[in-house]
Design goal:
Length: 69
């Protein structure tokens, strides 16, 4: 069965790495204004925050979906 969801099977870590590669931390922090993207950002600290914060994770997933289209 074909899955039309471009994010199917993509982990949160992969999304974040791809977003940082595409936008960079500064632009990512501008688009989604959260401290873990603007204040000494790292993949590890951002993943910790996003896994505990559903609204922020939803914003990352939405931006990732728009980027992949």
């Amino acid at each position: 069965m074909y899955n039309s969801d471009p994010q199917h099977g993509i982990t949160l870590e992969r999304m974040l790495i791809d977003l940082v590669d595409y936008f960079g931390w500064e632009e990512l922090a501008r688009r989604i204004p959260i401290k873990c993207f603007s204040n000494n950002p790292s993949i590890k600290s951002s993943l910790t925050f996003l896994r505990r914060t559903p609204w922020a994770r939803a914003q990352v997933e939405e931006l990732d979906a728009r980027m992949r289209r």
